[in-house]
User: Which sequence fits this backbone?
């Protein structure tokens, strides 16, 4: 009969940090959020300004980030690298990333596992990769290059499926596992995106989680959007639903036991409707929650 | 399935510029007929509106009131391969509307474009001509109220420059002045290059 004294000591798990997306130019909101977070997630494209044909980072926002990059971790989360485009990724995005990395201390950077351009033409939306051997190899190679280029961890996020799935060599989780394994990159698991895929395309979340190699997951995302024409949209305009938080908790306890951060994402345009206080309260609740 | 071909077909489906044929895999026929694709196309439009209604306030309000917004945006998306970067879209959209059929859309969009440029430090002086007094038109659009009933045509010109107290001023034109519009396109005054957008609402 086992006694408590004979059981192996539990392996200590890394403390889970709380993060939030922030696009700059709202110091009042930032002041309210900072006491409740460890990580600030920034997106280079939304902190950029056009200067003729050139695009560069807004100097005021850079100054804001430099002010807090010793106190809080900064993580970069891009949307327009288009890592999965057959004809190459976006040099404009990399130019912005170079500029940001030169000026701000960054803990890691990440992108979405999808593509936004084809033959230089903008889709206007992000599409998920076909889960083929060819696509996995292409993305893994580029993810490896990005890690070499910046000498920092690089993560890829599962995105919502906008159109029906095509015939594939991998399952959803199997594709993520293969890309992470072959490139050495980490993963972001966006649990709201899983809920969207469950609602819109009948994804079996529990089967997905059972197959996912959670050791690659470093970061979780929670968010909430709206339903339109019966479909759930990934627009980050609301406070996370309790069911999303519960799913995140299940993932953190059972699957992504090494994950270091959970980030609440919202669009700046949603702030007036959400209210600074409600956002800060959400972060405070996330900070106080026993996730594991 | 080759990745390049797959992505090209989906781009064509997203833009309604490709119809799967007998040689295409059943998957692409399924996507073409799916409600998801319709929703995705709508989302592309909504994302553009989302950015533009916050940046091109006057022009989007005018297009909405005239029930021209969707048509103008679809034309814009079809004809211009504009990056989804928020910073590029407003300037490109307003510039695109310089060729619109409706003269009031041309005047409002080119006025807003010039205002946006001088706010960002552009040293040029821009001129936009109007067939009606722009004051009540701009007031109504800024407050999202219905446009006033148009009075008799009355030629006006807005000048937009960073050195002006409110960044622009409105002048009533004599007919002869309006006919002289072309001279402003190349004129140099006090060392600053005058630019005319060429916009004249008739």
Assistant:
């Amino acid at each position: 009969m086992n006694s408590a004294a004979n059981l192996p000591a539990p392996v200590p798990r890394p403390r889970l940090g709380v993060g939030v997306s922030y696009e700059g130019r709202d110091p009042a909101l930032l002041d309210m959020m900072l006491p409740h977070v460890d990580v600030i997630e920034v997106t280079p494209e939304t902190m950029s300004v056009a200067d003729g044909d050139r695009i560069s980072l807004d100097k005021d926002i850079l100054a804001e980030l430099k002010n807090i990059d010793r106190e809080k971790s900064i993580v970069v989360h891009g949307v327009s690298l288009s890592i999965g485009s057959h004809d190459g990724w976006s040099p404009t995005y990399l130019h912005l990333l170079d500029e940001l990395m030169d000026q701000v201390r960054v803990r890691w950077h990440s992108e979405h596992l999808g593509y936004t351009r084809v033959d230089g033409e903008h889709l206007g939306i992000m599409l998920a990769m076909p889960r083929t051997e060819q696509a996995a190899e292409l993305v893994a190679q580029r993810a490896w290059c990005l890690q070499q280029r910046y000498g920092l961890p690089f993560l890829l996020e599962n995105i919502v499926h906008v159109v029906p799935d095509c015939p594939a060599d991998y399952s959803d989780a199997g594709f993520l596992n293969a890309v992470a394994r072959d490139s050495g990159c980490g993963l972001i698991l966006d649990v709201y995106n899983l809920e969207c895929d469950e609602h819109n395309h009948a994804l079996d979340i529990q089967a997905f989680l059972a197959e996912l190699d959670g050791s690659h997951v470093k970061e979780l995302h929670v968010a909430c959007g709206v339903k339109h024409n019966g479909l759930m949209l990934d627009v980050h305009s609301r406070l996370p639903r309790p069911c999303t938080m519960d799913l995140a908790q299940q993932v953190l306890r059972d699957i992504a036991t090494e994950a270091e951060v959970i980030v609440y994402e919202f669009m700046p345009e949603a702030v007036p409707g959400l209210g600074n206080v409600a956002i800060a309260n959400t972060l405070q609740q996330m900070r106080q929650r026993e996730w594991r | 399935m080759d990745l390049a071909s797959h992505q090209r077909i989906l781009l064509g489906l997203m833009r309604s510029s490709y119809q799967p044929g007998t040689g295409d895999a059943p998957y692409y026929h399924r996507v073409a007929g799916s409600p998801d694709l319709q929703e995705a196309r709508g989302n592309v439009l909504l994302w553009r509106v989302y950015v533009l209604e916050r940046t091109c306030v006057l022009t989007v309000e005018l297009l909405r009131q005239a029930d021209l917004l969707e048509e103008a945006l679809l034309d814009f998306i079809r004809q211009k391969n504009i990056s989804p970067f928020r910073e590029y879209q407003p300037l490109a959209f307003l510039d695109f509307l310089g060729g619109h059929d409706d003269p009031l859309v041309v005047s409002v969009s080119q006025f807003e474009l010039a205002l946006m440029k001088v706010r960002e430090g552009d040293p040029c002086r821009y001129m936009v001509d109007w067939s009606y007094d722009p004051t009540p038109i701009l007031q109504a659009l800024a407050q999202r109220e219905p446009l006033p009933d148009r009075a008799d045509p009355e030629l006006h010109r807005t000048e937009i420059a960073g050195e002006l107290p409110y960044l622009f001023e409105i002048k009533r034109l004599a007919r002869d002045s309006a006919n002289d519009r072309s001279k402003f396109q190349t004129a140099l005054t006090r060392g600053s290059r005058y630019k005319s957008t060429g916009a004249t609402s008739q």
In short: Chain B touches chain A through 38 residues (CB under 8 Å).
